[in-house]
């Protein structure tokens, strides 16, 4: 597309991020990663490995996978976020109290953000931009009113 102005990597990333529930997927993946890290903690810190250790590693691995799927396949975000919430809550029993509550909370908040994301919303306009537009509209109305009188 030669007629389109070139975008820098930062602007391209911002455009990519705006078309998906970025923060929800990132928090869900980070929550799963944190739980996986607490599984590898020294034995003095580990509180509960649960169910022969397999579920302790399986649930957070699936949380990381679902977080990445939310980022790269946002059309299925509802299923991924509900499953991510269930896995986050399940990590309470299987993985050191959900990664000492931190991974559980990150996963739950990320799942909620991904569930609530709406793809067809208008992009947010900053407060400064809204005020500038309002002043321009008010100025246009007053200049029209003065020109007709």
Structural account:
About 70% of the residues lie in helices and about 0% in strands. The chain is elongated and about 80 Å long. The chain has helices spanning about 10-20, 20-40, 55-70, 75-95, 95-100, 100-115, 125-149. The chain has seven helices and no strands. The mean pLDDT is about 85. The protein has about 150 residues and is mainly α. The longest helix is centred in the C-terminal third of the chain and has 22 residues, at about 125-149.
Secondary structure topology:
Layout: H1 9-18, H2 22-39, H3 54-72, H4 77-94, H5 96-100, H6 102-116, H7 127-148
Helix pairs in contact: 2-3, 2-4, 2-6, 3-4, 4-6
The number of helical elements comes to: 7
Mean pLDDT: 83
Structural class: mainly alpha
Uncertain segments are: none
Q: SSE order in H/E notation?
A: HHHHHHH
Give the proportion of residues in helices. over 70%
Could you give a short account of the major beta sheet? none
Radius of gyration: 23 Å
Strand content: under 5%
Q: For the record, give the distance between the C-alpha atoms at the N and C termini, rounded to a whole number.
A: 49 Å
Number of strands: 0
